[in-house]
Amino acid sequence: MSDPAAVIEAAPPRAARLPDSIWSVQAWRVGLIAVLLLAWELAAGRLFDDFWSSRPSEIAERIWQMAMSGELSRHTWATISEAGLGLFFGALIGTPLGIALARGPRVARVVDPVIMGLYGLPRVALAPLFILWFGIGLTAKVMMALSMVLFVFLLNAAEGVRGIDPDMIDLMRTMRAGRWYMLRRVWLPAIVPWLIASARIGVGLSLIGAVVGELIGANRGLGWYVNKSGGQIDTTGAFAGLVVLMVIAVIANQAIILVEGRLLKWRR
Fold first, then answer.
1. Which residues, 6+ apart, have CB-to-CB distance to 142 below 8 Å?
2. Tell me, what's the pLDDT at 119?
3. What percent of the chain has pLDDT over 70?
4. What is the reported pTM?
5. 7 within domain boundaries
6. How many domains does the chain have?
7. pLDDT at 158 exceeding the cut of 80
8. Which of 107, 175, 192, 211 has the most other CB atoms within 10 Å of its CB?
9. Cβ proximity of 127 and 144 under 8 Å
10. What is the per-residue pLDDT across 171-182, written as a single tens digit (0 to 9) for each?
């Protein structure tokens, strides 16, 4: 029988443990953000010129003014539409391509250099071409966002399928399971964690793609607003657009985490 004193001594002190409840984590997050914003507010104009960094209070005031004028919703909706459609079509196209490549190793070996070559291209440099091909409308930004996330879904889906236990595949084949049944019952469930991870990465990449497209040619969107503010040496406006982009990314990431919690309850 183990010594109770040894067990107590081995247990870490409560004060050293990180909070594990949802509300405790949220409180720590809010506290951290508040401290950072307060430090920025106090340092601006004292440690450095606030002309180049603005202030959180001025940024919040600008965002409020944009919300009241309707400018915030117009630019935000444009960027969310571009990034969201790019993320959706990237998953819709990349996932089946990844599954197909994983199930066809011979074809995968042939096309792998081409895929990695395209994946290695700096897609930001393709933005002028997308504007030239598709104009300055929605399509060019969606294609830009899609190009940023397509290979993430493709490569992760392929790796997820390759990681399936071969014994499971053999068992299903001995039971004469069809391809569609194996797709629904084996392959898709196996790659769900990979797809969720791809979505979390793709949120940021799709926003980058949409913003880059807006920087090259657009008449609305948060990227366009940041570019316009920077051209007018309006640091408050530039930071306001960046803060809204950051909030969008955080909200989207939290939504994916909620979906992950529902789909992957078995992993808890």
1. 82, 85, 86, 89, 210
2. 85
3. 86
4. 0.80
5. no
6. 1
7. yes
8. 211
9. yes
10. 777 777 666 777
pLDDT digits over 82-130, tens only?
999 999 999 999 999 998 888 888 888 888 888 888 888 888 888 888 8
* Of the candidates 148, 267, 242, 162, the residue with the CA atom closest to the CA atom of residue 201: 148
Domain of 72? Answer: 53-267
Alpha-carbon distance 28 to 15, whole Å?
14
User: pLDDT at position 247, please?
Assistant: 92
The answer to whether residue 163 is domain-embedded is yes
Q: What is the mean pLDDT of the chain?
A: 82
Tokens 């209070």 found at = 57
Residue 37 has pLDDT above 90, yes or no: no
Q: What is the 3-state secondary structure (H, E, C) of the chain?
A: CCCHHHHHHHCCCHHHCCCCCHHHHHHHHHHHHHHHHHHHHHHECCCECHHHHCCHHHHHHHHHHHHHHCHHHHHHHHHHHHHHHHHHHHHHHHHHHHHHHHHCHHHHHHHHHHHHHHHHCCHHHHHHHHHHHHCCCHHHHHHHHHHHHHHHHHHHHHHHHHCCCHHHHHHHHHCCCCHHHHHHHHHHHHHHHHHHHHHHHHHHHHHHHHHHHHHHCCCCCHHHHHHHHHHCCCHHHHHHHHHHHHHHHHHHHHHHHHHHHHHCHHHC
- Residue 175 inside a domain? The answer is yes
* Residue 12 clears pLDDT 50, i.e. is over it: no
CB atoms within 10 A of CB 47: 10
C-alpha R_g of the chain: 24
Residue 194: which CATH number? 1.10.3720.10
